[in-house]
Amino acid sequence: MANLVYKRVSTDQQSTARQNLVLHEAGIEDPVVFEEAPGTSSRLHPLQRPKFRELLTYARPGDTVHISEMFRLVRGTGHILDVLDVLHRDQVALRIHDGAFSAMDLTARHPRTGELLSTVKFMVQTLAAAGELQRDLQRELTYDGLRAAEAKGSKGGRRPAVAADKTADVRAAYLERRSIAALAREYGVSRGAIRTAVADLLPDYTAADPGTPAPELPVVLDMPGKVADFLRAVDLEPAERAALDQGVTVRRGQGYTLRVSAVPAVHRQLLARCQPLDGVQGAPAVPALRKARREYENRVSALIPTGP
């Protein structure tokens, strides 16, 4: 019986250090590790992730899957139940070593029906829903905080690594033929930060054509949930799909909106994809869907200039 370890991080700026610590403290014998590529989104269903699918192909009855915490593997309640059904079918156990699920036997089944115990199912759904609510609230608070900071004149994003009052010194030193590596060590920043500070002094620098239009900047718009649900079932371009997948869900009563950050061109493309919600020949429009599409259209038209 093998011990199969699964690890994942949501962005390529994160590391698996915390997961490694939890799993090391668990004392897992002879682990076979399956680690997703950095930045594998939690929105992608676990059964569609390359390394987890490889894990399931490798697994044999009696094996155990180990994860540091449940949310390294799944996010929504539907994903959890799907994974548990597959593990039960393949007679593979699941062991979670940290978090709310660590004290539960998630593979417990009714001795006669073979179905997941109702108490286990209830606890899984409740804890997963609570975790999902917590993440949504954190996103909302982060968004509101950024908006408040913008209103006070603050800009988001990382600060320049080379302080403004040091930039002139860095540029002067570079003109005196100090190397980028030496300047990076002296000022305690990355080489990329030094290159940014002296970009126009580099041999391969090419000045921008004054006639070239400035690149579009991302715009945040709230997309009605009915529109988002429709678009998820449509074939989209990679940029459109990425904008949709990275949207932030904001609960609104019984429904939700999806807070989407994308350049204006992508918003316009997504709006064009929604045209069928206004009705097509032989299929009248559903009033609620048509209303949602027009609500999104109004937001796109109000915030994004379409040009001459």
TrEMBL record:
It holds the Pfam family Resolvase. Residues 2-153 form the Resolvase/invertase-type recombinase catalytic domain. Gene3D superfamilies: Resolvase, N-terminal catalytic domain (3.40.50.1390). SUPFAM superfamilies: Resolvase-like. InterPro entries: Resolv_N, Resolvase-like_N_sf, SSR_resolvase. Belongs to the site-specific recombinase resolvase family. This is Recombinase family protein. It comes from Streptomyces hirsutus.
